[in-house]
Design a protein that fits this description.
The protein is α+β, with helices and mostly antiparallel strands. The chain is 30% helix and 30% strand. It is globular.
Length: 135
Amino acid sequence: MDIWEKLYNEAKKVQNGRTISPFIDAGGVAAAILTKKGNIYVGVCIDTASTLGMCAERNAIANMITNGESKIDKVVAIMPSGKVGSPCGACREYMMQLDEHSGDIEILLDFNTRKTITLKELIPDWWGYDRFKNQ
């Protein structure tokens, strides 16, 4: 089993589309992230009627930060269909702001072919690089 399959399987374990209340649905999308330290964190999307929810990727990142880490190596997001998908714009921006090397995060685009893309390829000419230089 390669790392992408491991991440996919970890995300799949928590993916379980369900209604929490008349206002909240959760688990349609699941994500797994691999940190630079080799740990895996997972999360599911939480969709609310007032748009206060969060994407699966940001939920996984919140779990990572809660556990004292902040550097991501790889990301997998599983759509309700079982296919993998690219993070939304908000998740891309969130990941870029974590670390000056976040542009190197690998994102799985196709599970069968193991096609990946880096975050910096999804956000060319990102606005925030200068802030990292001034740390």
